[in-house]
Specification:
The complex is a heterodimer of chains A (151) and B (79). Chain A contains two helices and no strands. Chain A has 151 residues and is mostly helical. Chain A has one domain. The longest helix of chain A is centred in the middle third of the chain and has 122 residues. With 79 residues, chain B is mainly α. In chain B, helix 2 packs across helix 3. Chain B is elongated and about 55 Å long. The chains are: A mainly alpha (151), B mainly alpha (79). At the A-B interface, helix 1 and helix 2 of A face helix 1, helix 2 and helix 3 of B.
């Protein structure tokens, strides 16, 4: 009876040891699996983070490049517009000045002519009236003949 | 002297044409450019309406004067 008891106790101990070993083994495996999953997750996460960072830097570089290009183009266009406006202003000023000078000269010449004609008419009233009427008469004659030729 | 005579002939002619009592010389001296324009317009209307009649009359008068003068000169030569 004592033998059976001791045999049972030995069996129970060995079974306990076996279960304990199995549990330890399973725990170690789970531990390894967990570490493995954690490592892989970390690796994937780092990889995604690196890629995101690279893409972000690339986009930022391109944006900066495009922005610089646009800024340079805008500055060049602004400079050209400013230069064109200054040139147009100078040309306008020159044309306006020339027109003003021509107008003043023509006005002065017309004034002188009118003054001279007035003086001549005051000195020779009858002759001037007769000349004007004669010129008008000839013009009327020519106009009438032209009208008759057309008919 | 000749110029003064011609001027007086012109003035007499104008005095005959314009209505009596109208001081045309004063008007022309006061308003020279409008007076010239008015004279030119009057001449134009006269030329366009009765131009050929006036030309014919002047030509006839000139021809008659020339003929009269020639006859007078020939008469003097003969006489």
């Amino acid at each position: 009876m004592a033998d059976i008891k001791s045999e049972l106790e030995d069996s129970a101990e060995s079974a306990q040891d076996a279960v304990s070993d199995s549990v330890d083994s399973a725990r170690r495996r789970f531990q390894r699996l967990g570490d493995d999953v954690q490592d892989r997750y970390k690796k994937v996460s780092d990889d995604v983070q690196d890629r995101y960072k690279k893409v972000s830097e690339d986009v930022q570089d391109r944006y900066k490049k495009v922005s610089d290009d646009v800024r340079r183009g805008a500055e060049r266009a602004s400079s050209e517009i400013r230069r064109g406006a200054e040139r147009a202003k100078e040309t306008y000023g020159e044309v306006a000045e020339t027109a003003q000078k021509s107008y003043t000269r023509v006005r002065s010449e017309a004034g002188n002519l009118s003054r001279e004609v007035s003086l001549y008419v005051r000195d020779n009233p009858g002759k001037s009236v007769l000349i004007a009427a004669g010129v008008g008469f000839l013009l009327g004659l020519i106009a009438r003949r032209g009208g008759n030729d057309d008919e | 002297m000749e110029i003064v005579e011609r001027e007086s002939i012109v003035e007499e002619l104008i005095d005959e044409i314009v209505p009596e009592g109208l001081d045309w010389e004063r008007l022309v001296v006061s308003y020279p450019i409008p007076a010239l324009l008015l004279a030119a317009v009057g001449g134009f209307l006269l030329g366009s309406r009765h131009g050929s009649e006036i030309i014919s009359a002047v030509s006839g008068y000139a021809a008659a004067e020339v003929s009269r003068n020639v006859s007078q000169i020939i008469g003097q030569e003969i006489g």
